[in-house]
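Progress report, Aim 2. The chain analyzed during this reporting quarter is listed below.
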Amino acid sequence: MEDLKGILSTAYFAPIQYYCKLIQFPETLIEQWEHYPKQSYRNRCNIYGANGVIALSVPVVKATNKKVLLRDVKISYDTNWQKLHWKGIEAAYKSSPFYEFYIDDLAQFFHQKWNSLLEFNLAIQDEICSLIELDSNYKLTNDFIEINIQNSNDFRYSIHPKTSKTEEDTFFIPREYTQVFSEKLGFEGNLSILDLIFNLGPDSSSYLQSCISKL
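Predicted structure tokens for the chain:
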């Protein structure tokens, strides 16, 4: 029953489209055996600040060879990126309706250290799902799943921060909601799940359901 399974990469405070996939399928597989690709949501998220969209990236330890498995990628703490991300999120969302409601639960991800990027991302994902009471049933892949362009449920490489690498998703319809800076700068769709929960709070789960097309 592979047609009932979605396939995703791991992601750092994943975009809204990603969380829609977690609930769209009865079961989701998260790829851990791929070769780690750079400049993707695996170590990056987009938030919405006073001057527009801001990309936050988690630095990783450089591999000794060109190809390293995602499951073996280590987080680098050579710079204090956690403090920078924390301050950036605070500046972007401190005035949002639900910032104070959730921020204490998320503080651990900016004050504690994780060795593995995969474990870090999964801990974030589990916490987000718990906070907004989102049911998600996922498993890590046992082996690398070969790319099949005919598999419309494979989103490992199509949910991407670069527009040139994204693919049309007819089952995802982003809907407008009130954002901190949307009155000034306009609405920005499919940002990090952080943007959604800080602005919509407990209504985040129902919003995600509303973005899933029934076509």
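Residues 31 and 61 are 20 Å apart (CA to CA). The chain has a mean pLDDT of 94. These observations will guide the mutagenesis work planned for the next reporting period.
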